[in-house]
Specification:
This protein is mainly alpha-helical. It is built from eight helices and no strands. Helix 2 packs antiparallel against helix 3.
Length: 184
């Protein structure tokens, strides 16, 4: 009888660990789906932004071409989560370059369409930031579960691997030089 109780308790523990790992894995995938949805909104906004600023920003043509190229890459099917995260970092940097360049064109800054696009982009960037935080927290919980004892043994048995978190680029970590922005 004691052996049956021990086997039942061990089976219950294994089932709980298995279900916990599956729940964490599904939570990561669910939240990444939310990140994808917000990123799609941003990718849909990019052509309008590029079209609106391109006639004013002839000298920054390479920036606009880079944004368009990155958007095309991001819309390719079958990208891994890691590739999506890397493209997101590059697009964030490229869009920041456009917004800084817009400051050099007073007519463009005053354009109502561009102002509306900037507002929409700022709003979407806030949504992306919130989605990234939620995703990173879910990934941290998941990675902790697959690395900590005893769930690491079950995770290894299930062939679960670590997930990547969103990190900001080195350029985004630097302080903004406000003096330089207003002198250009």
């Amino acid at each position: 009888m004691t052996i049956l109780i021990i086997i039942a308790v061990a089976a219950l523990i294994l089932i709980l660990m298995y279900n916990s790992l599956i729940a964490k894995k599904n939570q990561v995938e669910n939240i990444f789906g939310g990140v994808d949805a917000v990123l799609k909104k941003r990718y849909d906004l990019i052509p309008n932004l590029v079209a609106s600023v391109s006639k004013y920003m002839e000298h920054e043509k390479s920036i606009l071409e880079n944004v368009t190229k990155l958007r095309s890459e991001a819309n390719k099917p079958g990208l891994s989560d890691k590739e999506k995260i890397e493209l997101d970092t590059k697009i964030t940097s490229a869009l920041g370059s456009i917004m800084v360049a817009v400051e050099n064109y007073p007519d463009l800054k005053a354009n109502e369409n561009v102002m509306n696009l900037q507002h929409n982009l700022t709003e979407i960037e806030s949504q992306i930031s919130a989605a990234r935080r939620a995703y990173n927290q879910a990934v941290t919980d998941y990675n902790n579960a697959i690395e900590m004892f005893p769930t690491n043994m079950m995770a290894s048995f299930m062939s679960l691997g670590k997930k990547d978190v969103f990190v900001i680029s080195e350029g985004e970590r630097k302080n903004v030089n406000v003096k330089e922005m207003f002198n250009s």
